[in-house]
Design a protein that fits this description.
- There is one protein chain.
- This protein has 14 helices and 20 strands.
- The protein is of the alpha/beta class.
- It is globular and about 65 Å long.
């Protein structure tokens, strides 16, 4: 597919988080963009509407497709029998998954792909922040909204590199290939491997194998940057052709924690106070530094830019604070992420009590066979809370969970379990927040709890 030939693009499932950002990026390039979806939520709805791209009606309309369409981009949550997909196939139109399309649009660029079960969004975000701060030209595709960037996708004709968050989840409902296998990286990062997505990778070995394939796709003269302390990563990032491929292992950045602040120790720039914290983020910083070094950024410039990095949205995002309490929100939902995030907040504020509330929302986290992976994940919390919405379990057609099963799975007899978001909210409002922090972890929204109102109420209690 020649980039210059593209004029008309149609997106099936345009309302997705990354898909609507791609639609906006293509619209910014001056292309004619259309799309459909059976449900579109905020903020995608308002953003598409502002650009004149919001479909007039929700649903699937095969009549939108004809021979004038240059490319169809297929979102992951569309089904194989989607009426628009069937029409595109009937017409013989070029059909691409999101990662396939990104690759086609970046064939002439140096492709940097950040993979890993955890940390990939943060590493990608740090690199993007540094590049922007230093005025470097670059394209990107990232899974979270980042401060200072209007879009989660940017595609231009003149940027020499593209930074891609490489998700291991499947690319589309037809090919069923992990996204990060389709970007064909020059520089790759593996930030950690911890079994997830049980619905498509039913055992840990199959899941880990996707990262082995990713590692082995590193081309001659390419670079593989990996966390050297992760046993699972060590199994897939073993240097096989060190003469042909540059293998770089990294660990935790040297640092100290003082009065709730993290101070990095550097060789030439001395001590540098940063806004990130937690051992996992101190690994993420080193991963990002190694990537930046490979693309010609000096350590001094990296650290100076890092000082102003506040973090990606919903990654230890500070919702509010007083002299004695801080409330954090985090996207953590997989066991390794929950454990790392909980430990990070406790280590940063060891003198304060920590209330950690986790919403089980994903297919894996609600699966009875997978839940034992959470054993010990909330142990560092002084009060551990798990919430789930029974309607979510019914919608996913899964077996209902019991309080006893969850306490056994987390190996925490003191675990508090809530299935009513209002009851959870009331419990948090009644808690004594003097010298205590609150950590809210979820890829959902606790059945639409108003986070702003909850934050104000807790801090004013």
């Amino acid at each position: 597919m020649e980039k210059k030939e593209l004029q008309r693009i149609h997106l099936i499932a345009i309302g997705g988080s990354i898909m609507h950002n791609l639609a906006l990026a293509l619209h910014d390039k001056g292309l004619h963009v259309t799309g459909s979806d059976d449900e579109i939520f905020e903020p995608a709805k308002s953003r598409l509407a502002a650009a004149g791209l919001l479909p007039a009606q929700e649903g699937w309309f095969p009549e939108k497709l004809d021979k004038t369409i240059d490319a169809v981009i297929l979102g992951m949550h569309a089904r194989p029998d989607n009426p628009e997909l069937l029409k595109a196939q009937e017409l013989g139109l070029p059909i691409y998954s999101f990662p396939e399309f990104i690759y086609e649009q970046s064939k002439d660029k140096q492709r940097i792909v950040i993979g890993g079960s955890h940390g990939k969004t943060s590493i990608t975000s740090i690199i993007m922040h540094v590049l922007k701060t230093l005025g470097r030209k670059f394209d990107y595709a990232v899974g979270a909204q980042i401060e200072g960037f209007d879009r989660m996708v940017k595609l231009t004709d003149d940027a020499p590199i593209i930074i891609i968050e490489g998700d291991e989840y499947l690319s589309d409902p037809i090919k069923l290939v992990p996204k990060f296998h389709l970007y064909h990286h020059h520089i790759a990062v593996i930030s950690g491997i911890s079994w997830d997505h049980i619905n498509v990778f039913p055992d840990p070995e199959m899941y880990r194998d996707q990262f082995r394939i990713f590692a082995e796709m590193t081309p001659k003269a390419g670079t593989l940057i990996y966390t050297k302390d992760d046993e699972q990563v060590q199994l897939v990032a073993v240097p096989r052709n060190p003469a042909d491929i540059n293998y770089i292992g990294y660990g935790v950045h040297e640092h100290t924690i003082k009065e709730g602040k993290t101070i990095l120790h550097t060789k030439k720039d001395g001590d540098i106070e940063i806004q990130l914290f937690g051992e996992h983020n101190l690994r993420n910083i080193n991963a990002a530094k190694e990537v930046c070094k490979k693309i010609g950024i000096k350590a001094h410039d990296f650290y100076q830019a890092l000082k102003t990095f506040k973090g990606a949205a919903k990654r230890l995002e500070k919702l509010g604070e007083t002299d004695t309490t801080v409330i954090f929100r985090d996207f953590a939902h997989a066991p390794s992420k929950v454990k790392a995030t909980t430990e990070a907040v406790k280590a940063q504020y060891p003198q304060r009590k920590l209330v950690a509330a986790l919403e089980l929302h994903t297919f894996s986290s609600l699966n009875k066979d997978f839940i034992p992976q959470y054993a010990g994940a909330l142990d560092k919390a002084d009060e551990a809370i798990v919430y789930f919405n029974p309607k979510t379990i019914e919608h996913k057609r899964m077996q209902m969970l019991t309080e006893e099963e969850l306490k056994a799975a987390f190996k925490n007899p003191n675990l508090k379990v809530y299935t009513d978001s209002e009851a959870l909210q009331q419990h948090l409002l009644n808690y004594n927040w003097q010298n205590a922090n609150l950590l809210l972890m979820s890829s959902g929204n606790y059945n639409n709890i108003n986070m702003e109102a909850l934050t104000k109420a807790v801090l004013n209690a």
